[in-house]
Design brief:
3-stranded antiparallel sheet; mainly alpha; 57% helix; elongated
Amino acid sequence: MADKNDSFSWAGLLDISALIGLIAALLYTAGWSYAYHYFAHFQIGLLGITIQREYFFMYGFQVFKAYPFWILLCLGSCAGLYFFVRFLWQRVQNRTADQGVTWFSRLRVLGLFGGPFFLLLLFICCSWLGAGAGRAAFDREKAGDFSHYPRIKIWKEGEPDAKAKEWAKGCYQLLLRDKDNLYIFLAAGNTDWMSTDIVPIKKVDTMRVMPFGRNVKGCR
């Protein structure tokens, strides 16, 4: 015969797993929105680049650092909503057939049908917070002259054209790299919206990444 304590422990484990899943989803949404709005300033869409999913959680923690109160409020509201809906669902299962329509019945309907809508609002709030943190991060990088991005020299295969000669000077900075492309930009002119050059790695003969803060002669 199964021990009742075992059922309680399993129920508690399920609660913890469900809460971890919901919190992870909220942080992932915030991190995705952060990355989307940050890289949008470089004219890059997330569908066009390969970013490991773990990075979105890292970006989510950046959003948490920017808005700790609001993120904690969203996560706490999510936990409260989960236990509230769980309590209502248990009451639905345990109610007797002769129970009439009471104030609790109305509250139950409101909770069970309004819960998903409220959860959607929490995801929207996390998305808004991520967007604000992404734009603020770009403004900080712009104010610091994009010093967190190293300069890079790129030599293409074959006869260099005018663009390839510019890449070889070392004035461009490396935004990111995935398995197929290098994404580089030149911090000059209007820095509110950057122009990003996409260089296929298979066409690169040699590249040299300079240390952070390294000034290159002839570059600003």
